[in-house]
Amino acid sequence: MKIVIDAMGGDNAPREIIKGALEALKIRKGFTLLFTGDEAVISKELSLYSYDKSRVEVKHASEIITNNEAPTTAVRAKRDSSLVVGLKALKEDEDAGAFISAGSTGAVLTGGIMYIGRISGVKRPALCPAVPNVHGGITLLCDAGANADCKPEYLAQFAIMATAYGKAAYRMDNPKVGLLNNGTEDHKGDIMHQEVFALLKETEGINFVGNVEGRDLMYGDSDIVVADGFSGNVALKSAEGCGKTVGAILKQEFSKAKMRYLIARKQIGKVKQILDYSRLGGAIFLGLKKTVVKAHGSSKANTITAAVLQAVDAVEGRTVERIIEMLPDSIQE
Amino acid sequence: MKIVIDAMGGDNAPREIIKGALEALKIRKGFTLLFTGDEAVISKELSLYSYDKSRVEVKHASEIITNNEAPTTAVRAKRDSSLVVGLKALKEDEDAGAFISAGSTGAVLTGGIMYIGRISGVKRPALCPAVPNVHGGITLLCDAGANADCKPEYLAQFAIMATAYGKAAYRMDNPKVGLLNNGTEDHKGDIMHQEVFALLKETEGINFVGNVEGRDLMYGDSDIVVADGFSGNVALKSAEGCGKTVGAILKQEFSKAKMRYLIARKQIGKVKQILDYSRLGGAIFLGLKKTVVKAHGSSKANTITAAVLQAVDAVEGRTVERIIEMLPDSIQE
Fold first, then answer.
1. Would you tell me which residues 257-316 of chain A have a C-beta closer than 8 angstroms to some C-beta of chain B?
2. pTM
3. A160 SS3 class
4. Interface predicted TM-score of the whole assembly (ipTM), two decimals
């Protein structure tokens, strides 16, 4: 099985992308890498490391899509970009299981739908990152921002897709699904979320446990939090902002007390480690015919390593096939 | 000026409510307290403390509204509840400036609208808590959950009301107003928030700085974050969940290393202190003809003390009058 990687996407490309992906080869067997991007640049980077050359390919792409470009225009116009060449390789190469990019989120989403295509019956693909939680594990959040305007039936599909992914890649057994709402009582929410609540209660194949609040994303018991892409994005970033604030205060306080920091750093490091999203890889884009993972633009090597292993897990766990199996016949086209 | 206090509302009523309110008398001059609730119970509690008796009154109310009651039904039926008696005292007593309750949020909101009434021209009153931020100050969030279903014009009014309140109670000078959205670019958001963005750009009297993300609530530069009540609630609680998670991890890690905790506790305490919402009082309910403050149900004495001082600041700063002055003529009824 082959993992295709956009070697040119992200703030630290290509160096950290290539370094991180090669590291994944050492950790797991059973897959190969295909880098897309400027062949000369990639070859030069690859020459810095020793690795199993039988597990690495390069496919040349002369262009790069930046964050400053309008996604739809860019993925249409730049056919020879590392992103589009990568997505095409994923689509056309039977052995290719997943594509990873740390490039423009909009371009990855638009390009994924355009070149890989939605699974038949899926109304809206959705971003599904893993969020660290108080139990030391992860909570899946779906949708974290791909769809700002949602209809109730989209969220029912997000619940199904995230359940399939949780089982496939995180070996969750009958994962608990909560609906992100403005209170835990059954009647809570705006009109849309009240409709979603009723729909999720009737959706087969998911373990719906009712409404959850923002605090439950990190401090709750659900395995999966289903959200419209707008409030899912707000939840993710609000938690992130609090984490950053804590980090900044700790840094400021201990900068005035360095000896104390040395004594307590193991315990404080544990907080940083648990809150550190980067160890969790990227956000999978669920609902496409093949696996696409969007890594954070600021990803360093360790995040890319995690994203590669995450993509391997998603493919080996048969995420796409499970989604197809779980989608109710009624909503298949 | 008189601050009316629901002595029976909240998990720790009446003891912590009365204790906290009396404490505020020691800190500030220029106001008196009126407690509503069971006179015998309140008198017994009051007898535990020494305080300036010329600054404290009690008004008997035989009933209590609980969290388990439907708010609208409860505030209509229980006319002799500590909450309704308090709201009526606020309305009828010319000297009364504000009402504080740690009771049922729904009942405070419904009762506030029913007995105090909206300012002429205000479409929807909104909850506006102060959220601790990375700078060691506060960010006002409006609406934090009073209105799940919003229209763009409601949010324009939230921006105006929060600006008036920031100037009045927190002495903010031309406070920066951000719109909570799923990205910072101008075009971001669902259809509703795109309309809000356009409307805020044209709203006079506010210093609109554009879209902000969830992370900016605590880790940004806006003084005010305007939100629909649904995603505002999600933002507040998601940040809170991350804060609780950090607290739980620190507690767990340092419970295994107590000596290290003793050495680092000053620095760690600073994080807890900054994140501690309770020191900030309650959430003001903006848009009513007089000031109503909803304190958290779990409020202890220190939160009630803060809420009393916050209410005094809001009244002395002329929050209601400033809102009336700022509301554009066009939207006055």
1. 257, 260-261, 263-264, 266-268, 270-271, 274-275
2. 0.94
3. helix
4. 0.93
